[in-house]
Write a structure and sequence with these properties.
This protein is mostly helical and 187 residues long. It is built from 7 helices and 3 strands. The protein has helices spanning 7-14, 45-57, 71-80, 105-117, 134-140, 160-167, 179-186; strands at residues 87-91, 121-124, 172-175. Strands 2-1-3 form a 3-stranded parallel sheet, sandwiched between helices. Helix 3 (71-80) crosses helix 6 (160-167). The longest helix is centred in the N-terminal third of the chain and has 13 residues, at 45-57. It is elongated, with a radius of gyration of 21 Å.
C-alpha cells in the first residue's frame, strides 16, 4: 500500500515485487486494483488510507477512535496539567537535521507570552533534543509548564504515551512538523 502521492516515487515503488500493489497516485493509474467509477478521494487522510486498505483487502474497514494512551499516562497527565486552566501546547522542536524547517523559537516564546497574558497556561513539549532549552524558556515564559521535564507525576518517565495523554488535556497546540507534533495531534 503506497500512501504518498508523488508519481516518480510511486513508479519506483511499483517495481517492488508483491502480489498486489495499491496506490491512489495519479488516479490509481499504477494500482493493481482501483475503486469503482466515480470515486472521490475523501477529505480526511485517515479515510483515504482506510480506502487503500479496503482496496488491498477487499474488506470494508470502519473508522474507529483509537485509544492512544494507558491509564497510567492519563493519571500522570492529569497531575501535570490539572483541570481548571486552559492549557495551550507548544512543540518547538523538529527532527534531527531539520532545524532549518523550524519556526523560530522566539516566535513560540512570543505566542506563549500572549497566551499567558490572556490567562491561558503555555505548555512546552520538549523532547530530548530540546531539553537544553528548558531553563531559557522558563525564564522567558515564567507561567509555562514543561511536563516532560517534570518528574513529579508519580515518577512517570516521559514517552510517547504520556505526550499523547498530555495533549488530550490541551485546548490547542502549535507545532513544527515533527514527531512531537504528531504525538500531540494524536492526543
Amino acid at each position: 500500500i503506497d500512501t504518498q502521492r508523488r508519481f516518480l516515487t510511486t513508479l519506483i515503488l511499483r517495481r517492488i515485487r508483491c502480489r498486489r500493489f495499491v496506490s491512489g497516485t495519479a488516479g490509481f493509474v499504477l494500482s493493481d486494483v482501483r475503486p469503482p467509477a466515480g470515486y472521490r478521494r475523501p477529505a480526511t487522510m485517515v479515510r483515504q488510507i482506510l480506502d487503500l486498505v479496503e482496496l488491498a483487502s477487499g474488506t470494508r474497514v470502519e473508522e474507529t477512535r483509537l485509544r492512544m494512551h494507558d491509564a497510567g499516562s492519563g493519571e500522570a497527565a492529569a497531575l501535570l496539567l490539572p483541570d481548571g486552566p486552559v492549557h495551550v501546547g507548544f512543540v518547538p522542536g523538529s527532527s534531527v537535521g531539520r532545524a532549518n524547517k523550524r519556526w523560530p523559537l522566539e516566535r513560540y516564546v512570543e505566542l506563549a507570552r500572549r497566551q499567558a497574558s490572556r490567562g491561558r497556561v503555555p505548555v512546552f513539549v520538549l523532547g530530548p533534543e530540546e531539553a537544553s532549552w528548558h531553563d531559557d524558556l522558563a525564564r522567558q515564559v515564567p507561567q509555562a509548564r514543561f511536563p516532560l521535564q517534570d518528574h513529579s507525576a508519580s515518577g512517570r518517565r516521559a514517552g510517547p504515551l504520556l505526550t499523547i495523554a498530555l495533549a488530550s488535556r490541551m485546548r490547542a497546540a502549535v507545532s513544527n512538523d515533527s514527531g512531537g507534533g504528531h504525538l500531540v495531534a494524536a492526543g
